[in-house]
Amino acid sequence: MGCYDCCMRCLGGVPYCSLVATLLCFSGIALFCGCGHQALTESERLIETYFARNMQDYITLAYIIQYFQYFIYGLASFFFLYCIVLLAEGFYTTSAARQTFGEFRSTMCGRCLSSSFIVMTYVLAVLWLLVFAFSALPVYFFYNMDATCHTIDVLTETPASINQLCVDARQYGLLPWNAVPGKACGMTLSNVCKTREYQMTYDLYIAAFAGAGITLLALLTYTVSTTYNFAVLRYLGRKGMGARC
């Protein structure tokens, strides 16, 4: 066998669908976890500096942010391992691997494992859809805040109406209703929107939201890939009915 034939055989053994899904999952999780972790830290700093004077007013929010950051650590580790396993399962069912190992037959264990991956990936995709929707909430909050600041900049000639334009963190459940001041209005709010911390936090939340979308796309791609792999194993099982795990 020539070098060209060997290369084509190796390239034919690559599960491209699973490989693309793995790259999407790695990049999406990296964006979501990395940017989300830093955005939560910056959000706590913004709340502490501009919306709450007493630490007791945002102590609950600080604990929630800390728990979410721990959750992000576990999430990144889980998806890294799960994507590696799904990629290995994709290699397991490639036609080139079957051609290389001519005695290969699908086992009952292999078919059960592949069907388990289908169910797990489908459940993860549904759960991640909720995470994707949840990650849109801080983007919505900062979008409203940015729109209010833009309106204030347009109405700078009428200071009386400017002071009536506010963003109240208490309305979004970020602070208790007895928090002081709990909101930022007028030029104070406009100055907040011009700070580097605000701009960076807004961009980080947008990046985390995009990362959640990329991860959702990767999980949907994995669902298609694992379903195809299961169909391949079912076909091989009919060819080798005597094989067992």
Describe the structure.
Its main location: membrane. It holds the Pfam family Myelin_PLP. It comes from Gymnodraco acuticeps. This protein has about 240 residues and is an all-alpha fold. The chain has one domain. The chain is about 80% helix and about 0% strand. A two-stranded antiparallel sheet has the order 1-2. α2 (about 15-50) packs antiparallel against α8 (about 195-240), α5 crosses α7 (about 185-195) and α5 packs antiparallel against α8. It is elongated, with a radius of gyration of 25 Å. It starts with a helix and ends in a 6-residue tail after the last helix. The relative contact order is 0.19.
Mean model confidence by pLDDT: 82
- Give the helix/strand class: mainly alpha
State the order of secondary-structure elements, H for helix, E for strand.
HHHHHHEEHH
Strand content: under 5%
* Sequence stretches where pLDDT stays below 50 over 5 or more residues: 99-105, 240-245
Largest sheet, order of strands side by side? 1-2
**Radius of gyration, Cα only, in angstroms?**
25 Å
Please tell me the total number of domains: 1
Number of strands: 2
Distance between the termini: 33 Å
- Helix tally equals 8
Helix content: over 70%
Characterize the largest beta sheet: strand count, sense, and whether it forms a barrel. Answer: 2 strands, antiparallel
Query: What would you call the shape?
Result: elongated
Family: Belongs to the myelin proteolipid protein family.
Main location: membrane
Membrane topology: Multi-pass membrane protein
Subcellular location: Membrane
